Input
Amino acid sequence: MNRIPVPGILKDLSRTFTEAGYRVYLVGGAVRDIYLCRAAGDWDVATDAPPESVMRLFRRVIPTGIAHGTVTIHHKGAMIECTTFRTETGYSDGRRPDSVAYAATIEEDLSRRDFTMNAIAVSLPDGEVVDPFNGRGDIKAGLIKTVGNAEERFGEDGLRPLRAVRFSAQLDFRLDDRTKDAIRPALGVTALVAKERVRDELSKLLRSPVPSTGLRIMEETGLLDLLLPELAACRGVEQKGLHRFDVLDHLYLACDACPQNSLELRLAGLFHDIGKPETRVTDEHGIHSFHHHEVASAKIAEKVLNRLRYPQKTVRTVAHLVAQHMFHYEPNWSDAAVRRFIVRVGKESIPALFDLRRADGWAISGVRGEPLHLSEFGERIDGVLARDHAFSLKDLAVNGNDLIRSGIPAGPETGMVLKELFEAVLDDPELNDRNRLMEIARAFYNRITGLGTAVARE
Ligand code: ATP
Ligand code: MG
Output
C-alpha cells in the first residue's frame, strides 16, 4: 500500500500549502500510529515552506520553536506542529544541535529522525507514502531501529537511547540488536542530557502498559546505573519469608501492578522499597530484616525525584505514599485506631495507599489476590468517614478564638489545648460538642498550668 487515506482536516490544511507552491507531509508519531491502528496523539507536518511563509499563509500561527523552524498552526480547532524540512549539523554537547539548517527534500529531513518507524512521511493531500528506511517493515516486525548508524545517532543526542527504551515499553516493540548494543557506548552522552528531558521520558515509560519491559532494558544497557543508581543497587538484594524475588524484581513488579493512569503511584511502586539495601540487617540464622526501610525509601525517593526535577507536589505525594506503605491493620483495631490512621495518612491519600498495598502484595508472590484484611479495613474506614466528621483541628466544634475568649492566653497554650481536644475527639467523636469541649479545655489547661482553680468562665 503506497497511498493511505488522509483525514479531512489535513487535506484541507494542505491545500493552503500546495496552492502557494509548497509541499507538505504528515510525519512523526502520527504516521507510525496510523500503521499501528492507534489513535494519533498529535499531528506533525513537515514542509519546504520557510517558517515566515507559513506564518503568512495561516491566520493563527504561533512561533512555538521558530529557532528550530517550528511553528504551531491553529486550524479548524486542531493544533498542528509544522516544521520546515531540516538537516542537523553538529551536536557538540550531546543535547541539542549546534545549528539547524533547512533541507531541500523530505528524504533529507527523514534521515535526521531517530528511528525508522518515526521516519515515514505521507504526502498531503494525496496520501503518497515516503518510506526510505523501511519503517513500515520494522513496524510490522515490531522493531525499533535507528535511522543509519546507531552509535553515531546516539552519539549525537543522548536522549535517543531513552526514547528507544520508552517506545519499546509503549508499543511492546523489541530493540534491534545493533540499536541496543549502541546504548552502552553512548552513556557518556546520555549523562549530559538535561534532567527535565530524562524526566519526561521516564514518565512516559512509567505510563506505558508494562513499564518493567523498558526498565529491564535500561538495566541491561547501563542506563539504570547511570540515571537511577539507587534502583540499580537493589539488584541481588535477597529478601525473606514470603518474598519470591530480590528487591529490584519486586520493585519492577510492584510498579507494573500500580494503575497505569497514575504516574505518582507508578513512581511510588517503583521506589517503595528502594531503601532496603541500606537498611538490611542479617541475623546469625541468615534471616534478613529491613527495619524502618519505608523511612529510608521515602528519603531516597525524594532525592531521586528532586534530582530529576519532578514538581514538588509529585515529590511530596510519592514520598508520603512510600513512607506510609507499611501500615498494618488488625481486625481488632478500635474505631479510634481507624480514625488515627485516617488522620496520619490523610483521607485523600487512602485510595492510592491501598492501590500501592495491592501492588506490593502481588509483587511479593507474583500472584494477584486481595491482601489479608484489606477490604475489611477499607469498609471500616468508609464507615468511620461516613459517621464521624472531625479529622483535623479545623473540624473541631471550638477554635483558638473560643479558647482565648474563655481566658486561655493566646500562644503555645492554645495550640496544646486544641491538640488535646482533637485527641479526645478522635477517641470519642461524641465529644465534638462546644460545651463539652470547653469543659475539657478548662480542665486540661488547669492541669498543665498547675492552677487547680478554674479559668474565668465565658
Ligand atoms: P509521541 O508524541 O507519541 O511521544 P513522536 O514520535 O510523535 O511520539 P515526538 O517527540 O512528538 O515523538 O517527535 C516527533 C518526531 O520528531 C518523531 O517521530 C521523530 O521523527 C522526531 N524526533 C523527535 N525527537 C527526536 C530526537 N531526539 N532525535 C531525532 N528525531 C527526533
Ligand atoms: Mg508526537
Remarks:
- Residues 393-457 form one domain.
- Confidence is low (pLDDT under 50) at residues 452-458.
- The first strand starts at residue 24 and ends at 27.
- The pocket of magnesium ion (ligand 2) is lined by residues 28-29, 41-42, 44 (CB under 6 Å).
